[in-house]
Design a protein that fits this description.
Blueprint: H1 2-7, H2 12-41, H3 49-61, H4 65-99, H5 105-134, H6 139-161
Length: 172
């Protein structure tokens, strides 16, 4: 160990700290590996986020099999289009934040108009897809989609904040 610390000009204290960090990482990896084995051994497959979201929505919306079959392709298409609009709006906001000190009033006005256009696109999209949902779901369930979206975001943020494993979806 002395050769290592001399060769890299590390003090014994730094080497000990590095050893502890490496041991900690190895232990975390091992625990994570064991957790995966434990879940698989108990017949509990580790779900990805999309699977968890589907289960969350299906339970909260109480979708019938027929509704679920129709819901997910439409909802995923809606979400992808909404995400694209959101990304473009966020890009505009980031550009404005970085360049606002150097923008003219006209450029700032253009940014406002673009922002409002993105908001309008999102609203138009919502109206369009609400009509599509109503083709195969009752109005009460369609309205619950928006509530369940917020519940899912809240549930996800709580899990991320608490640094918990996202394994089980809470019931109502």
């Amino acid at each position: 160990m002395k050769i290592f610390s001399m060769a890299f000009n590390f003090s014994t204290e730094k080497v000990n700290v590095m050893k502890k960090k490496i041991l900690y990482l190895v232990l975390l990896s091992f625990i994570s590996f064991l957790s995966g084995l434990s879940a698989a051994a108990q017949g509990k497959p580790v779900e990805n986020l999309q699977q968890q979201k589907m289960r969350f929505f299906n339970e909260r919306l109480q979708l019938t099999p027929a509704e679920s079959k129709n819901f997910w392709p439409v909802y995923n298409d809606y979400q992808n289009r909404r995400d694209k609009i959101t990304a473009e709006r966020n890009t505009l906001l980031a550009y404005f934040t970085s360049n606002s000190n150097n923008m003219t009033a006209t450029e700032a006005d253009d940014a406002i108009n673009k922002f409002l256009a993105y908001q309008q696109q999102e609203n138009d999209l919502l109206q369009s897809y609400t009509k599509r949902f109503l083709e195969f779901m009752p109005a009460k369930k369609v309205m619950r989609i928006f509530i369940v979206e917020n519940q899912f975001k809240k549930w996800l943020l709580e899990n991320l904040r608490d640094n918990r494993s996202i394994v089980s979806v809470p019931r109502n």
